[in-house]
Amino acid sequence: MFYRLILSNSDAKIILVLIPRVASIFFVIFQVLGMVSYPGGTIHDLSTNGYLFTSNFFSDMGAYQARNGEPNYLSMIFFSISLMLVGGTFALYYLVLPKVFGNNNRNYFLSWIGTIFALGGSICLIGTGLTPTDLVFDLHVFFANNIFHCFLITSFFYSIVIFDTVILEKRYAFGYVVFFISILLYVGVLQFGPSVSTGKSELVFQVVAQKLIVIIFFLTVFHQTFGLSKLQIDQ
Questions:
Q1: Exposed (0-12), middle (13-18) or buried (19+): which is 235, by Cβ within 10 Å?
Q2: Quick one: which of 14, 100, 175, 207 has the fewest CB in 10 Å?
Q3: All structural domains of the chain with their residue ranges
Q4: What is the pLDDT of residue 227?
Q5: 11 in the Ramachandran plot: left (φ > 0), alpha (ψ -120 to 50) or beta?
Q6: What are the φ and ψ backbone dihedral angles of 71, each rounded to 5 degrees?
């Protein structure tokens, strides 16, 4: 019922093309504003000033208090808004995708498996934005890690579906496979990578890996919008 309501009252291309592009732009803007307004401090050096791109996690911006002990309200607000915006955008995006790729029963079924986990990942995005790491660390880590666990499954099933359809050019299928492999590697880093508490080089490794997977994440969605913009999607 809710799914049909979305499609009946909205242009599918707005949800699949325009909104993801706009949300991606605003995500970047809010993240930059969050970085600029972050007071300072890293896990291993509480005395640093400002946000260090290779030593501060995204989540540092979402903390109630910066690592140097100063209030972090402004950066926290920018961080929270950006993740809630993206979480809502991805939820709508993946709710509509089965309509595009479900050209047969098998693909429709696989698309919905991918979408269900994407909805879980979207909830985790919103949850990550609403759980300051310095106040509810365990819950924040649960949400943050499960973003990638959920979207790993989503990218796996949608890679199969996109390769099996002629709706999109193969370059978009290959792009989604790269997306899946990248998330798989990052989940490996989360599970088996060096602990950030070990030293500064380990912290840099984890922070840079996180930045790379987020960049790949958004570039993949942005790239897919160009393929989806060429389609004739029935309402």
A1: exposed
A2: 14
A3: 2-228
A4: 86
A5: beta
A6: -60, 145
